[in-house]
């Protein structure tokens, strides 16, 4: 009771009357009761009967209806939320969200709620009162933000609506169901097909000798057990982890060692590789092997997909079915920024920052994937990433986010898991390593912040991965908010996008 006493004592004298510092009422208030319905606002007795109150309310509602009809607006309606504890509140949160997405919350005249439904209704109405009015913002986007704040407030304060409160709002990824319509999704796909798709991982980057030579530097990089022999299992593990190629198999490793090891066998000697001239030969032959692999089995590398850039002006041209897409994405970023206390720049300049880079429409066919990676190359670059599912595969294609700073979990999955297992059970394996995985659903959007620490390391998320598509195709649209890539000042880590 101590904290309650302090809060009560700090209040004004009107509310403090009747409190004597103990857990009991003082003599002045003991035994007295106050009927709040006995007097109206001016202190006089209320003579209205129940029937008169109902009639007055009906007349008020009918007057509002007639006003809406004269203005040409949608027919107003009321919403009733039933009880049922947290399960009811969770379901009704979804109802509010869908009404907000449909732009119909502004047409709601009355909310009626009991028990579990009142958890959500009271929280929602409190957010409405606190926010005041849209103040120039479009009403649907304003209501969407109000509902998001309501849900996040309940998550943070009481753990409602989520099983793990550590994954409540403010953490990545932000999930916006049905952000785009089916027509908008298909229009983006057709626009990309008309412009032409190119490999997401250009040949010159896939065969760049710098990471290859770095990964193969010294015999110890491949000879993991130190027995002096580099076998196919060690070579495959090195390729999966050091070259970020989770689908690199034992068979691929045997071909690699046989062609690049000088002796034609599946194993090579670590002492042989330690000689500089042999190391140079091995690196050169490795590039030749990988070039053939890229031509015939491109999914063996860190990324296998094709994509097309879509200029923002093309999306908003007259008559385009995609005209509303930029504003929908910008509203999503704005709502996320408000709820995560992001910088004012991100909150108020999301339109300009969003269009710093073209949108990319990306196609993943069978085996298509993207190994664990981050989108941001330096602080300020791609502060927010956006991903929208345009077409979904029948099996596979999940997007998985790794926990912050858990490099060991990522390396462990890439090193120790056979390529065939990663292909079939990617999401299951990554979840076991602590990742959060989202299954593709057409029109759904994901958003996450690429936040940097003062020491120059990414804060959240550390990395994410696109699991291999097993059956069907996956199409996504990617966009970013923040400083665009500038090769004159920074190394552009994702220049192909």
What are the SSEs and their pairings?
Layout (H helix, E strand, L loop, with lengths): L1 H8 L3 H4 L33 H22 L5 E5 L3 H17 L6 E6 L1 H17 L7 H20 L15 E3 L5 H14 L2 E2 L3 H4 L2 H7 L13 E2 L1 H11 L7 H11 L7 E2 H5 L1 H21 L6 E2 L1 E5 L1 H4 L9 H15 L4 H5 L1 H5 L4 E6 L4 E5 L10 E8 L3 E2 L2 E3 L5 H10 L2 H14 L3 E3 L6 E5 L1 E2 L5 E3 L3 E3 L2 E3 L2 E8 L16
Parallel strand pairs: 1-2
Antiparallel strand pairs: 3-15, 4-8, 5-6, 7-10, 8-9, 9-20, 10-18, 11-15, 11-20, 12-19, 13-14, 13-18, 16-17
Helix pairs in contact: 4-5, 4-6, 5-6, 6-15, 10-11, 10-18, 11-13
Tags for this model:
19 helices, elongated, 7-stranded antiparallel β-sheet, disordered N terminus, disordered C terminus, 497 residues
Describe the structure.
By secondary structure, the chain is an alpha+beta fold. It has three domains: 74-169, no CATH class; 182-201 and 303-481, Jelly Rolls, CATH 2.60.120.620; 203-300, no CATH class. It has 19 helices and 20 strands. The chain has helices at 2-9, 13-16, 50-71, 85-101, 115-131, 139-158, 182-195, 203-206, 209-215, 232-242, 250-260, 270-274, 276-296, 312-315, 325-339, 344-348, 350-354, 407-416, 419-432; strands at residues 77-81, 108-113, 174-176, 198-199, 229-230, 268-269, 303-304, 306-310, 359-364, 369-373, 384-391, 395-396, 399-401, 436-438, 445-449, 451-452, 458-460, 464-466, 469-471, 474-481. It has a seven-stranded antiparallel β-sheet with strand order 3-15-11-20-9-8-4. Strand 1, helix 4 and strand 2 (108-113) form a beta-alpha-beta unit. Helix 5 packs across helix 6 (139-158) and helix 10 packs antiparallel against helix 18 (407-416). The protein is elongated.
């Amino acid at each position: 009771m101590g904290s309650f006493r302090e809060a009560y004592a700090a209040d004004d004298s009107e509310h403090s009357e009747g409190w004597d510092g103990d857990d009991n009422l003082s003599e002045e208030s003991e035994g007295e009761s106050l009927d709040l319905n006995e007097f109206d606002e001016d202190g006089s007795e209320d003579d209205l009967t129940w029937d008169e109150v109902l009639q007055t309310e009906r007349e008020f509602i009918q007057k509002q209806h007639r006003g809406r009809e004269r203005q040409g607006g949608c027919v107003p309606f009321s919403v009733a939320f039933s009880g049922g504890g947290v399960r009811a509140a969770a379901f009704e949160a979804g109802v509010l969200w869908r009404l907000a997405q449909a732009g119909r919350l502004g047409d709601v005249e009355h909310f009626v709620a009991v028990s579990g439904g009142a958890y959500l209704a009271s929280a929602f109405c409190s957010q409405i009162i606190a926010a005041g009015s849209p103040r120039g913002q479009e009403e649907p986007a304003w209501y969407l933000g109000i509902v998001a704040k309501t849900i996040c407030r309940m998550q943070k304060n009481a753990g409602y609506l989520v099983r793990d409160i550590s994954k409540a709002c403010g953490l990545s990824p932000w999930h916006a169901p049905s952000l785009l319509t089916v027509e908008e999704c298909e229009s983006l796909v057709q626009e990309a097909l008309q412009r032409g798709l190119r490999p997401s991982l250009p040949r010159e980057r896939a065969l760049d000798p710098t990471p290859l030579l770095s990964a193969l530097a010294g015999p110890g990089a491949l000879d993991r057990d130190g027995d002096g022999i580099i076998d196919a299992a060690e070579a495959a593990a090195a390729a999966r982890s050091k070259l970020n190629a989770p689908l690199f198999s034992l068979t691929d490793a045997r071909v690699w060692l046989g062609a690049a090891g000088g002796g034609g066998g599946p194993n090579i000697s670590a002492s042989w590789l330690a000689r500089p001239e042999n190391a140079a030969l091995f690196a050169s032959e490795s590039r030749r092997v990988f070039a053939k692999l890229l031509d015939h089995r491109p999914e063996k590398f860190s990324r296998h997909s094709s994509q097309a850039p879509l200029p923002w002006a093309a999306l908003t041209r007259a008559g385009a079915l995609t005209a509303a897409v930029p504003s929908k994405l910008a509203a999503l970023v704005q709502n996320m920024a408000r709820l995560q206390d992001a910088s004012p720049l991100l909150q108020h300049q999301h339109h300009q920052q969003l269009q710093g880079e073209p949108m990319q429409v990306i196609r993943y066919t069978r085996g298509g994937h993207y190994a664990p990676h981050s989108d941001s190359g330096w602080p300020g670059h791609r502060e927010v990433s956006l991903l929208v599912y345009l077409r979904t595969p029948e099996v596979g294609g999940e997007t998985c986010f790794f926990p912050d700073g858990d490099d060991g979990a990522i390396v462990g999955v890439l090193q120790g898991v056979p390529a065939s297992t990663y292909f079939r059970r990617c999401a299951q394996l990554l979840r076991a390593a602590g990742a959060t995985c989202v299954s593709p659903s057409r029109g759904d959007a994901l958003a996450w912040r690429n936040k940097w620490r003062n020491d120059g390391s990414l804060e959240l998320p550390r990395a994410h991965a696109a699991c291999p598509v097993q059956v069907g195709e996956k199409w996504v649209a990617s966009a970013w908010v923040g400083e665009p890539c500038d090769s004159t000042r920074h190394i552009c880590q994702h220049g192909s996008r």
